[in-house]
Structures are given as structure tokens and as C-alpha cells.
Amino acid sequence: MKKAWQAGAFLLACVLALSSLTLISCSDVGGETSTAVSTDPEGPEDTTPAFPEADYNGDGFTVYIAKGGNYVANYIDGEENDADVVSAEAWIRNSRVEDKYNLVFNWRYAVNPSLTLKTDISTGSCGYDMLIDSRKTLATNCTAGLLMDWNSLDVDFSNKWWDERCIEDLTIHGKAYMMMNDICTARFEGIRFYYFNKQIVEDYHLTSPYDYLERNEWTLDNFLSSVRSVRTSQDGESTEFGVYGLLLEVDTNNSIPIHMLTGCGITYSGVDSDGNMYCNLGEKLDSIDLILTKLRTTFDDKASVITYAQAVAQDTRQISGDSSVGMYPRGRTLFKLGKFLFAHCSVAAASFIADGMEDDFGCVPNPKVDSSQKEYKHLCDPLTVIFGIPNDTTVDTDRLAVITDYWSYVSNGTVVPRYYDITIKSKKVSEETAARTIDIVRDTVKYEVLGSFGITFPANIINAAFTSGTLSSEYNKYAVVLTNNINKLNSQFEKN
Question: What's the average model confidence in pLDDT over 161-178?
């Protein structure tokens, strides 16, 4: 049944589930749950951790923030009495930190702040204490001596307001040059999974992905069977856009084949006990090839699956927007218009999809390889923003440790839950299964280490093999250079 208000049910469930990330409830931070901005960010007195006392004499603390691009840092800054209540909450949070430590927050903005980091430091014009930029962009500075090691700070990163998975996955030789915490909502926005159109499930008399999920049968084979069941009736001459089983992303670090391999429990990189990055792709060629072959058999059926580029090319009536709109927003607009059963996107896409989608929709994790797999698996978008510390003599690391730890703690009890609560209040509807899905995704996400530091050969090999069908051949082309690049990067980390 098509109802406009149902389009928001999924987003509501997303934010409801994610709100459980913080153990400090909204009643702890501002009385009963409401859309009003909270006035007591610290929570109950008996649960407040001890933080150092300090007076920074009204000095500035400057953060250089990614804004204006495709990957941005939201709700670090804020506006007093903003109509966006989360922004207003961020202003309250920031004021609390400023008052506690007698400091003033300052903001600088750029699409990619880290691109000028080397020049800023070498010319003595840095002037900022911390920056946040796309992980893939920021990582280019990690071995150039331009970033400080977060592990050198006197901070307990096991606290819930810091991202422990980030620490585990991206610490090389004991050094962590990139870090995520609750100061920014991007910690949750890069999680990727499948959105599905419930109306198409009904129209094509399919088994609901939620039913598969409930029976522990949300597997690769059942997913692919569902995709194949939705076939366009477009005859090649019609100007109408058909209905397809899947909107396919390929040839990127976020390609569906890469996320599907992760979902099936196959990881090909990590950090060993000595702190070295490794790639064991060559040891898993058979299992990877088996999955890629299954994917290719279904994804090559152009009546059921088309890529973003193909979708935009077929949209001759430009129902998804004109050519000035990017390929990915246009593809997701086609999903909103009921043209795909499945689309693989991040949490950050939920607001876009919910805005104006008439059909009801839900979400499911990446499917398992089969029902015997213990848990679902997911990757964080490698372009999601993340924090770094400029290796500049003007940065007081003791001060930075005190401020960021307290700032993140306060945000964990205010901005993070408020980010979700406002959406809850605006949607009025909860979907229990979607909430369970987001819990699953949140608890099984990881950062892929090699791609994070610019070694994209594994992803390139997988994407090329998906197209060519010759995994061993593709791997053998790059095996030596892949190993050399990893060894070089490990050596740089060890020396840095």
C-alpha cells in the first residue's frame, strides 16, 4: 500500500536502533524525550566520569572541517536557536565545553582540508588543532610526517564515545593517525547495507527479505533469486523506465562485489600481531571466485540488473534529474521512484531516499554466504570523514586530549541521541525489523585497512575479476606490486 508517511518508517527505525549506541538516555540529558534542546548535557551526576580540570584562558581551539563536497562532517559546529534542532544541540554542547575549559571554538572550512596540510605546516600557517576529512584523502598524509599519532594522547579510547573498531582496524605499528569519535555523526553515516522496495516485493509475489532474515535464511542464494525475479518489461524502444531487481555499483572501492564478499565472511586484509598490514587475497582465490561467479551469473542479466551509468543512460526522460545532477543521486532517485527492488547505500542516504518516496521500504544486512555463517558482515565507506591531528608545533597535545575526550563524551549524551530522536519525533512510526537490521549492521562493521591507506589493488583485482571472470589471472598481474606496496607502507609506518 502506497502511503507517503510510510517512506519515513525505515529512516525512523535506523535512527531508533542507532540511538542505542549511547547508554545515556534522553531523559538523562534533558528530561522526557522531546524535540526541545537539552539543557543538561552531562547526564546524571553519579554516572559522570571524572575529567581533568583546566583553564585555557579564553584561547581558541580551531577545527578544520570538510564541507561542501560529497563527504562532509556534520554537527561539529552548530547554530544557536537553529531550526535544525540537532545543530542547536551541537551549539549547546560546544558552549558547555567552552564554559568548562574557558576556551573558544573556531571553525575553518574546505571541501578537503587535508589537501593543504603540508603547505599549512611548512609555511607556519596551520593554525588549527584538528582537522576532519575524507578517510581516503586524509590517509595520504599518514606516512609523510604530517599527522600526529592519536595513541600518543593520554586518552582511554575504549570509552564508548570513541570508535574502538577504528582503533583496532587502523592502528599500524602501534600508531593511529586517523580516529573517529562522537563529536561528529559521520561515525554512523558510512555504514552500507541493502534498501529494498516493499511494494515491488508485493507486486512480484516475492518472499520478503524480512521473512528470510527472521528465519536466518537471508543468504547469497536467496538474495540473488530475489534479484532475478524482478525483470524489466522494457522492449528497448519504450521511453518508459522499466523495473529492475538491482541497482548495481561497480568499479569502485564501494562496489557491490566487494561488499558482497565481505558479507559472505571473506576478508582479504588486516593487521597482524606485529602491527604490519597484510593481504591474503591469494590464499582465498577459490572461495572468492565461487562467489564472484554466482554474482556474475545474476548480474550479467541486464533485464534484472543495471549499473548506475546504465540507469542514467536509459533514463531518457530524465525522471531522475538532468545531466547536471550526479550519477549516484540520479540512480538513487530512480530507486525512490520505484524502479529497483534493491539498492546498496549508506545510512547517510536514508534521508534522501525517505524524502518523497511513496512506496514503503526497508533494509536488510549484506546477505550471508549460507545459513551456517555465524554473523553478518559489513564495510564502512572508505570515503567517510575522519579526524586527524596536524603535526605542527602550535598544537598542544595535552590540551587537545583533554578537550576532545570531554567534547566527545558530552556529544555521546546529547548530539548523538538527539540526532536520532528528532527523526523519531518527525516520523511517528517505528519498524521493529528495520531497527534490528541496523543493530546488526552497526555491530558487524569494519574498516578495510589497505584501501584506507591508498592500496587499492585488492579492490581493483576483485572488480576486474568480476568483469573478466579470471580471478587468478587478475591476481597474478598485480601480486608482486601489491606485496611490494604493502611492505613499503609497513616500513614507512615503522620509521615514521
Answer: 92
pLDDT band at 425 (very low <50, low <70, confident <90, very high): very low
Contact call for residues 133 and 384 (beta carbons, < 8 A): no
33-65 residues labelled b (16+ CB within 10 A) or e (exposed): beeebbeebbbeeeeeeeeeeeebeeeebbbbb
241's grid cell = 523506465
Q: Stretch 256-274: mean pLDDT, rounded?
A: 95
Name the 3-class secondary structure at 193.
strand
Cα dihedral angle (451, 376, 223, 213), rounded to 10 degrees? -150
* The CATH number, out of the four listed (3.30.310.50, 3.40.190.10, 3.40.47.10, 3.90.930.60), of the domain defined by the range 53-188+383-427: 3.40.190.10
CA 13 to CA 423: how far, in whole Å? 9
Residue 29 has pLDDT above 60, yes or no: no
Residues 117 and 22: their CA atoms lie apart, in Å, by: 33
Question: What is the per-residue pLDDT across 105-141, written as a single tens digit (0 to 9) for each?
Answer: 999 999 999 999 999 999 999 999 999 999 989 998 9
Do domains 53-188+383-427 and 192-379+455-495 share one topology? The answer is: yes
Quick one: angle between helices 256-263 and 285-299, nearest 10? 130
CATH code assigned to 192-379+455-495: 3.40.190.10
